[in-house]
Design a protein that fits this description.
Chain lengths: 240, 307
């Protein structure tokens, strides 16, 4: 579905991503782990065209989308739940959902999708006329996910969806992600909450200082454990 | 002050205030959505007045009757469209190329282009250096309310401005595209992540704001019967002052700020002896006080604040 091939990205003259090659296969959950500042969000920014890669390709369904505008990339089927949720704070829940549907011109489809969002998260239905900025972090995260789904994406990019949420809420969000994937959604999940993310993933990568230093491409316990060991060692190294 | 004089001054203040509001909503939209301070906006106001003057001349030559409703409507539409087009051009040639440049550069460029626009009108309009009599675009009977004779142009300006401001508020609050404008103002990157064409949002925002600014120029001509190539400078200062008072980025604040400024100016003019010579200082004092004491505007927050 989505493939990065030897991608190099820099902000101005500051290089961030170095030779990143990763694959997000159809219908799978791929997770990208790494500590703060590793370049995970930059990977998403590169996929979305916020920063153009200096070299390499971003292939979406086989077509190189690097160099295209963010707008056209999103409209071609890439949905995103950004880091920090980024809901529109002074818009109601329902308005946020409408904005998420901006690529869709079919009014009845939009209405159906809003109804789906409310079924998935009844809490949002209760708060449909409330300004998004006044909701709790967990509710905002539900909204951010629903808003991304309004665009009927083929792949969903989630940037640290558990960040700053209470453990119980994190469970809910992770269950939602699992359910979405069961219903056929392809997912790229970025997390610092490594163990949990890897557990439900089909595939995982570990990023450090802009480079992928380990990966597991098979969904076996051993492969995951190997990746987890590198990840934990890296975390320990940080702490020491 | 007699009741009649009071009523007359009230109308003057309302007319002036709503004209400032019409200019101020442009400033505040440009700042809130695009994050530019566009000092060419005052010249759009000036050009609106001159477009009205020129188009009405052409229409009369084409057989329209000066002072008739069809002529007035045609001139109004022409001014709205001309203002919109100027806004689109400003986006394309000034705002877009300056994207990413330091704010102060963009501000200076808009000041520069405002000088160009002013000089162009001065040179291209016949006898443009001198004040131009503004035609009475709409013949209306004088209105008498409670023994006070009221200039009908004043009422016309007030009603029209109110309708246009209401229309803008409707577009922003209730339409799909208005939602995109608000989304872009609140979080531009997130708006792009939703697939919103932010470039289009900028163009429409500049077109809308400039169209209203141009109509304010037309109102000014109607109310005072005279226009001049350098009328845009004061309009810039006052519109900007009103927007700052209301909190830059806050549309309703800009409307309130415009009205407040209009009423304060008329108060100064009518209460202080020889007050009219102080009228133009009011907006400076207000801006300075605002920036010192309430930099976020009298309402203390921007309606479309960033995350
Ligand atoms: N807009 C930016 N301009 C310059 N440098 C940036 C920008 N965004 C991120 N960086 C730098 O790029 C590196 C990677 O950041 P990021 O991708 O946000 O990391 P992560 O999401 O893994 O925490 C960091 O060193 C960060 O300081
Ligand atoms: Mg990040």
């Amino acid at each position: 579905m989505l493939t990065l091939v030897n991608v190099y990205t820099a902000y101005g003259s500051v290089p961030v991503l170095k030779n990143v090659t990763l694959e997000v296969p159809d219908g799978q959950i791929t997770c990208l782990l790494g500590s703060n500042g590793a370049g995970k969000s930059t990977t998403i920014n590169t996929i979305l065209g916020f920063v153009k890669p200096k070299a390499g390709q971003v292939l979406f369904r086989g077509k190189d989308i690097s160099g295209k505008s963010t707008e056209s990339i999103v409209r071609s089927g890439v949905g995103v739940v950004p880091e920090g949720r980024r809901v529109f704070p002074k818009m109601t829940v329902e308005e946020n959902l409408f904005v998420g549907a901006c690529a869709c011109s079919d009014k009845t489809r939009i209405k159906e999708n809003i109804a789906k969002a409310y079924t998935m998260f009844p809490r949002l239905a209760e708060r449909r006329t409330q300004n998004a900025g006044t909701m709790s972090g967990g509710e905002q995260q539900m909204l951010a996910i629903s808003r991304a789904l309004m665009g009927e994406p083929e792949i969903l990019l989630l940037d640290e969806p558990s960040l700053g949420l209470a453990p119980l809420v994190v469970n809910d969000i992770f269950n939602t992600i699992k359910q979405l994937n069961k219903d056929g959604m392809t997912i790229l999940l970025i997390e610092q909450n490594g163990a949990k993310a890897l557990e439900m993933a089909d595939r995982g990568y570990l990023m450090q200082k802009g480079e992928l230093i380990a990966s597991c491409t098979e969904k076996t316990a051993e492969a995951k454990e190997k990746l987890m060991t590198v990840y934990l060692n890296q975390q320990k190294g940080k702490e020491a | 002050m007699s009741g009649e004089v009071f009523f007359q001054q009230f109308l003057n203040a309302l007319g002036l205030g709503i004209m400032y509001a019409l200019i101020a909503v442009g400033f505040t939209l440009f700042f809130g959505v695009i994050e530019v301070v566009n000092f060419a906006h005052g010249e759009v106001f000036m050009m609106g007045a001159f477009v009205a003057l020129i188009v009405s001349g052409i229409l009369v030559a084409a057989g329209f009757t000066m002072g008739s409703l069809p002529l007035f409507v045609a001139v109004l539409v022409a001014v709205l469209i001309a203002g919109g087009i100027i806004g689109v051009l400003l986006e394309k040639f000034i705002v877009r190329p300056m994207r990413g440049a330091p704010d102060i550069m963009t501000l200076l460029i808009t000041l520069g282009i405002s000088i160009v626009m002013r000089e162009a009108v001065m040179l291209l309009v016949p006898n443009g250096r001198n004040p131009q009599p503004f035609p009475n675009l709409m013949d209306l009977d004088s209105i008498q309310i409670g023994g006070v004779l009221i200039k009908p142009e004043a009422i016309l300006s007030i009603v029209l401005s109110a309708i246009l401001i209401g229309g803008l508020a409707y577009i922003i609050e209730k339409t799909t595209f208005g939602r995109y404008i608000r989304a872009t103002a609140q979080d531009r990157e997130a708006a792009m992540m939703m697939g919103i064409n932010v470039k289009k949002v900028f163009i429409v925002t500049l077109a809308l704001g400039s169209a209203l600014g141009a109509v304010a120029g037309l109102m000014n001509g109607l109310s005072y019967g005279i226009i001049k190539f350098d009328m845009g400078f004061a309009a810039s200062i006052k519109g900007f002052a009103a927007a700052v008072v209301g909190g830059l980025g806050n549309v309703y604040g800009a409307i309130a700020g415009g009205l407040l400024l209009g009423f304060l100016e008329i108060l100064v003019v009518s209460v202080i002896p020889d007050g009219s010579s102080y009228q133009d200082i009011v907006s400076f004092i207000i801006v300075i006080m605002c920036l010192v004491f309430r930099p976020a505007g009298i309402f203390g927050e921007r309606a479309y604040e960033k995350v």
